[in-house]
Amino acid sequence: MVMATVVLVTGGTGLVGKALQHIIETEPVGSRYGKLPNETWIFASSAEGDLRDPAQTNKLYEKYKPTHVIHLAALVGGLFKNMKYKLTFLRDNILINDNILHASYTHKTTKLISCLSTCVFPDKVEYPLDENKIHSGPPHESNFGYAHAKRMVDVQNHAYKEEFGCNFTSAIPTNIFGPHDNYDLEDAHVIPALVHKCYLAKKNGTPFIVSGTGKPLRQFIFSYDLAKLFVWMLREYDDVEPIILSVGEDEEVSIKEVTDAIVKAVGFEGHYSFDTTKADGQFRKPATNKKLLDCHGAFKFTPFEQALDLSVKWFVENYDSARTGVNKKP
Ligand code: NDP
């Protein structure tokens, strides 16, 4: 008899959660990244339960009885929000993660994958980043709340495994972009912020100004590619040690290249400029995906421009319902 599998995705309504839902609904059933016939997938939002609260977390587990959990829910934000609300980022994420890990243990969940971020890595570190360097120095001061809360998941995963034999692990994605991103200009990450700014410049005939010099390099992963890698981890990766999910170091793109691709996808015909009085942040912080390729085998990442074009089209078509911050309550 084939056992029924219930996969609970926390943060199921966010950028990555929506991408997972898309992949599960569109990849052929039974394929490497597609839904298996015995699987039920649940994509939970915060409306189903505030995961900062242990009672609400337990209720969610009692309701769905998940055999597997992909834990994406987190308080997420851009640099400004991270700097302003360090304690909130630390505390909310510690509470959410602790509740999920403990509920997964008490409800005998077969497997739990939590989502970290390359922000967890030390500020002063030898590049490229790899999975062994997470705890080898303090994280960057600007987001230490978020980073420490996320690091602690790796510590807890090891403790749950050693004391109780739990099959808990974690993924470390680099910068993510795709449909359903957060485009709120006050706290968006770089790609959604530039997409939104460029869209407004085109619509209103206003200048399009990009903060910084445009020179820094970053690795971006398309949310649909990341979603496939989460499905792969769920089925084929059974190790407590985290794994970086990213395009290769040779696929870094500069902020200028990102901007040019956005301008093309939006169809903005005006002139744009860089505000070089604004800080650039680190020039580059490359992460290696060697472990991923060793474990998974070759993976066909969506070409950056193609993925960006798709994401921009989604934003333009869904402007009224997207998270633009326009209808945000004060
Ligand atoms: P989003 O901000 O798009 O979505 C966050 C999700 O978490 C939403 O579904 C939200 O629910 C849910 N959530 C937030 N707070 C709570 C809560 N208290 N209780 C229950 N649910 C909650 O995030 P992303 O999809 O971008 O991020 C997913 C994961 O990836 C996170 O763990 C993040 O740290 C990590 N990550 C993200 C990166 C990025 O570039 N975006 C880079 C690297 C890692 P609701 O919709 O109801 O508010």
UniProtKB/TrEMBL annotation:
Family designation: Belongs to the NAD(P)-dependent epimerase/dehydratase family. Fucose synthase subfamily.
Taxonomic superkingdom: Eukaryota
Keyword Isomerase among record annotations: yes
Signal is among the record's keywords: no
UniProt GO molecular function: GDP-L-fucose synthase activity; isomerase activity
The protein's Enzyme Commission number: 1.1.1.271
Main enzyme class: oxidoreductase
InterPro entries per UniProt: Epimerase_deHydtase (IPR001509), GDP_fucose/colitose_synth (IPR028614), NAD(P)-bd_dom_sf (IPR036291)
Protein name (Swiss-Prot/TrEMBL): GDP-L-fucose synthase
Pathway: Nucleotide-sugar biosynthesis; GDP-L-fucose biosynthesis via de novo pathway; GDP-L-fucose from GDP-alpha-D-mannose: step 2/2
Domain NAD-dependent epimerase/dehydratase residues, every copy: 7-248
